[in-house]
Design brief:
alpha/beta; Rossmann fold; 48% helix
């Protein structure tokens, strides 16, 4: 059993979206997957899973709300992959979950408003030996500017952190799919499907080991 967590210092950077994308990709490969939703104010993953069930989208992806790591630990048996979606504002629980994870994804946009807090959190987490070699920063909700993308990649590299070798673009179609219980390469648009597949492959490689 593997644990992949998505953590962040602020909302709106695609954390919950990417958690669902990874979970769906693993489920399509036949893995037993659980999404642990720790963002009790939003419960984006839990509500999305319920919509997926109502819409009859296959394969089914289970998502449950958790408020403590102890309760999550009690439910891990029987799953190949547990995908953890943490709260938008990092706290002590975020650090504890990161220690338990096999890989820790930190999504960020390309703006300094996103990069500064993300890199600050990455540096804080990296001080813990049990987390330092698990951190992977994901450029998420990116626009079409190559210049901004290159600047963001340079900053992350300069800070000494690994990056996912694929970026998650900002596209309205991805949100439309989430709204009806789909995610990632389940998109009907072939261009979105291809973009999602690149990110899924990169995340699956790290998440499943």
């Amino acid at each position: 059993m593997r644990v992949a967590s998505f953590v962040g210092q602020k909302g709106g950077v695609g954390k919950s979206t990417l958690a669902r994308v990874l979970a769906v990709a693993a489920a399509h490969q036949g893995h037993q997957v659980l999404i642990g939703d720790f963002d009790l104010e939003q419960l984006s993953c839990v509500e999305w899973a319920a919509m997926r069930l109502r819409q009859g989208v296959e394969p089914e992806v289970e998502a449950r709300a958790f408020k403590s790591l102890k309760k999550l630990r009690k439910t891990l048996e029987g799953y190949d992959l547990v995908v953890v979606d943490t709260r938008g504002l990092a706290d002590e629980l975020t650090e504890d979950i990161s220690k338990e994870s096999d890989v820790v994804f930190l999504p960020t946009g390309t703006s300094m408003d996103d990069l500064r807090p993300t890199l600050a959190l990455a540096k804080r987490l990296a001080k813990t030996k049990a987390v330092s070699n698990k951190i992977v920063i994901v450029l998420s909700k990116t626009g079409r500017s190559e210049r901004l993308l290159e600047q963001a990649e340079a900053l992350i590299s300069e800070a000494g952190f690994d990056m996912l070798n694929a970026v998650w673009p900002e596209r309205d179609g991805f949100q439309a799919d989430l709204d009806v219980g789909r995610a990632g390469s389940e998109a009907s648009n072939p261009h979105l499907k291809l973009a999602a597949q690149h990110v899924e492959t990169a995340m699956l490689t790290l998440a499943l080991g």
